[in-house]
Amino acid sequence: MTDPGMKCSRCQAPARHRFPAHNARFCDPCLERFIERQVERAIKQFAMLEPGQKVLVAVSGGKDSLTAWQVLRRLGYAAEGVHVSLELGAGEFSAASLAACAEMAGRLQAPLHVFRMADLTGLTVEEVARANRRSFCSVCGTLKRYYLNKLALDLGFPVLATGHHLDDEAGRLLGNLIHRHHEFLENQWPALEGAPGGFAKKIKPLCRLAGREIKAYAKVHGLPVASGHCPRAKGATLPYYQEAMQLLEDRMPGTTRILYLGFLEEKDGPPPLPDVQAVCSVCGAPTWAEVCTTCRFLQRAREQKQARANEASAAG
Ligand code: AMP
Ligand code: ZN
Question: Which ligand is nearest to the CA of 147?
Answer without folding.
Answer: 1
